[in-house]
Amino acid sequence: MEKPKITVCVPTMNVDPWWFRKTVESAHAGATEGHHEFLVFSNCHTRRTEDIIAELSEMGANVRLVGASPNNEGVAIAVNECAAAAAADFVGYTDDDRVFLPGWDKVLLDRWTGHEKDYLYLTSRAIEPTGTNPCMVAPHDFGRTEKTFDEAALLAFWEGLPKQDVVSCAGPPFMSAWLWKNVGYMDAGYWPGFGTDPDLAIRVHCAGQAAGTRTIFVGLGGFGTYHGQCISTAKVRTDGASIAAHIRFKQKWGCTTREFAARINDGMPL
Fold first, then answer.
1. 41 neighbors 66 (Cβ within 8 angstroms)
2. Exposed e or buried b for every residue in 46-82, given b needs 16+ CB within 10 A?
3. Which DSSP symbol is given to 218?
4. What are the domain boundaries of the chain?
5. Cβ–Cβ under 8 Å, residues 103 and 93
6. What DSSP assignment string belongs to 56-98?
7. pLDDT tens-digit profile of 27-48?
């Protein structure tokens, strides 16, 4: 089998099976640039996840389960297991409740090609049902369940949306495989997942500074996803994990996640 161009890591936990299938299916069907791989780590694992992976494989998707746990090991461990097993030189991850919009891979590869050795941190311009983050396109609710999801309306909205790049460290990133390794992947101390993305972003930022260069954070206007906001962390007892994540970040980096975002001009047009 040919080497994949992109590895997409898919940590999943107790999400509606329709969403998990739709995430991988939309990324596979919407790809235009050839062969990619999808690596899955299943927290609170059930046999249903394996059944869906088998169904997706029959459809032609290069998807496989690289790890599973009966417990919730958290987002970081799930992503790290997948990223360490990646066969591609370009690696990212996705939530298990995202719809990838057509041509997503071309936009990513066009921006990354020629910059493989750069400190480049790429994310999608996610369409979200709720929220005020300037890096996202929100609030625009196209449904959160199989019954309410309106794909035709979503695609029509996406067609008419200006494809403006912005400075962004928000959302799941795509980076060169060597850069994931260079920063040591995600910090598993942020359990079950609060704080993992901003901590990874600031570590990439600091790694760039240490190398005498600048990390470029880009929310790609043409890389569209719709985030169903199923919020897996709401399904388990977290016992103050969100507050603990804020404290951990401040102790590690001497600033808050919001202060770091402001430092890099998060949300500003490029």
1. yes
2. eeebeebbeebeeeebbbebbbbbeebbbbbbbbbbb
3. E
4. 7-263
5. no
6. HHHTT--EEEEEE-SS---HHHHHHHHHHT--SSEEEE--TTE
7. 999 999 989 999 999 999 999 9
Percent of residues, the chain, with pLDDT higher than 90: 92
Return the closest-CA partner of residue 36 out of 7, 2, 65, 79: 7
CB 84 within 8 Å of CB 14 = no
Instruction: Express each pLDDT in 133-162 by its tens digit.
Output: 999 999 999 999 999 999 999 999 999 999
pLDDT of res. 238: 63
DSSP assigned state of 234: G
Nearest to 200 by CA among 29, 42, 80, 98: 80
- What is the Cα–Cα distance from 14 to 232, expressed in whole angstroms? 7
Tokens of 53: 């992976």
Contact 116/176 with Cβ under 8 angstroms? yes
Long-range contacts of 203-211 (CB under 8 A, 24+ apart): 204/119, 204/121, 204/175, 204/179, 205/169, 205/260, 205/264, 207/119, 207/179, 207/182, 207/183, 208/119, 211/119
Class of 7-263 per CATH?
Answer: alpha beta
| pLDDT at residue 236, rounded to an integer | 58
Tell me how far CA of residue 215 lies from CA of 184, 218, 248, in angstroms. Answer: 16, 10, 23
Q: What is the three-class DSSP state of 217?
A: strand
| Among 89, 130, 98, 120, residue whose Cα is nearest residue 4 | 89
